[in-house]
């Protein structure tokens, strides 16, 4: 990454509408919830804000509508220090997400409607080609169309930029994408979808990670919730424990927090395993707060938790 700087992220913004209740309603049933929150979200957007608050220099590529949710997005980027290379569209709504949060344990279930960001295409990537080619890190996911993600990863890989791919939400993806990825970072549900078997033990996690390497990925990192994360490459395989930062309130943005922290640490030249540890600390703080982007911790908070060594 010599001579390069910054993190470029392609993804979607979605306004998070989060409902807290005992359970999801059945069809034709109405339940009373115990809380509601509205705030900025979307995987790519969350990752961009997490990386910037963790100390990274971040550019975010996306599309939004010319509406109040779009203004929410731009305000969030301004507050976090994210450079917003975002197309504002007329006549198309900004993306939005329905989030159910279980009031007993903070677990979540999500429906995302990408809106304007669902129209992201190769033209958005080409318009930001120079920015991608000059970055230290490029990261993307699968909430925007797959074609745009593949095109951007291809540009970054050819330019020698370190690439991070978060295969989320889980879907069928072509094996060719893995050869474009220095780091593939799924969670345990997403990787189970990819490899076709459960990932409930350390042995299953290592087997899944090894399969991702055989598909062509440079390294595999599997996030495992309270079990931490597995870093697996041809040279090294290590489980990194989760940190304890307090009572878990909302796990919705945990993976995005991890990825933002990981990318920020990697862009500073930390070793991959150190960057995974930094990502675990970032996620541990985020889950003690409600919401997604608003829950992302500041750099000083992450450093304090890292120095404390409070692992689970």
From TrEMBL:
The keyword Kinase applies. ATP binds at residues 187, 223-228, 255-256. GO terms for cellular component: cytosol. Signal peptide: none annotated. Its cofactor is Mg(2+). SUPFAM superfamilies: Ribokinase-like. Requires a divalent cation, most likely magnesium in vivo, as an electrophilic catalyst to aid phosphoryl group transfer. It is the chelate of the metal and the nucleotide that is the actual substrate. Gene3D superfamilies: 3.40.1190.20. Residues 7-297 form the Carbohydrate kinase PfkB domain. It catalyses: D-ribose + ATP = D-ribose 5-phosphate + ADP + H(+). InterPro entries: Carboh/pur_kinase_PfkB_CS (IPR002173), PfkB_dom (IPR011611), Ribo/fructo_kinase (IPR002139), Ribokinase (IPR011877), Ribokinase-like (IPR029056). Substrate binds at residues 14-16, 42-46, 143, 256. It is found in: Cytoplasm. Activated by a monovalent cation that binds near, but not in, the active site. The most likely occupant of the site in vivo is potassium. Ion binding induces a conformational change that may alter substrate affinity. GO terms for molecular function: ATP binding; metal ion binding; ribokinase activity. CDD domains: ribokinase. GO terms for biological process: D-ribose catabolic process. Keywords: ATP-binding, Carbohydrate metabolism, Cytoplasm, Kinase, Magnesium, Metal-binding, Nucleotide-binding, Potassium, Transferase. Its EC number is 2.7.1.15. Belongs to the carbohydrate kinase PfkB family. Ribokinase subfamily. PANTHER family: RIBOKINASE, SUGAR KINASE. Homodimer. This is Ribokinase. It comes from Sinorhizobium sojae CCBAU 05684.
